[in-house]
Amino acid sequence: MRDIDISYGTFARYAADLSLFLLVADCGQLSRAAEIAGLSQPRLSQRMKSLEEALGKELLRRERRGVALTRDGQALRTALTPHLGEAAAGFSRFQRPARRRTLVIETDLAFASLRFLPVFPSLCAAFPDLGISLLTRQLPEAGADREADLRIRMEPRHEGTGTACCLFAERVMAVCSPAFRDAHPGLGDPDPLRGLPLIELTSDAGAPWFTWGSWLAQLGPEAGVRGGGERISFNSYDHVIQAAEKGLGVALGWRGLIDSRLETGALVPALPAAAQAELESGHGYMLRMLSRQPGEEMRAVYDWIRDSFSG
Known about the structure:
The chain is α/β, with parallel strands linked by helices. The chain has eleven helices and eleven strands.
């Protein structure tokens, strides 16, 4: 151990100048080496002379177009290069911050804003070494997306597998603000929605969720519902819910997305108990791993989301 202490102590006295010596040897020019090292050329030249004097050996031969290594200089370079070069590269890697692994979760705007964002900080905290990103679309495509690792979307419901599971089924009811319900006592009549403004989410004909048309059709003619009056359309479900909370009309409310609004009373069932229908479809929010060979981290995030929504 004593010998190691001595060798390290000796090397420490010359370490900086030995690194500069290797830089000069690689560049073949004092001017270029000085520029890289952030020194003036005279200062670098003086340090090389001081190193030669301390070692008692001539290391560099000054020539017209630069510098050349003497025999002793070449021997010193051979002795230092593999070790100092590796040490310099290792230190450079140490200085660079580790690049975080990333995982992308894709879902629709409604699920993201009303249900997923409230738990997103807890998800990130559960995986501090993993960068988790949320990619939102109005209607995520069913085909694999190279950007995404996990997808949560409304699609036909089926039994869970090792790579897919249903977070909750599609159950939909008509909702409005308490003030709107109080201002429209006709909501208790046999034909409760006739003439009332219906707030809807604009969507393509093939959207995999209830629309007012499909919801009213499934409710059936025996309920006496004829489709309401004016339609107020938004391209964001978040805006649909905000409009309903502001008393602009009646909206379709997805259980699992609006539960917190029902609990606080910001939204209430629009139809009286006798007529109120909470309709369920064969669809649901499915969580799916998109990789054919998911790694441990992806499986862990998948399990976390599944357990959080099934609890």
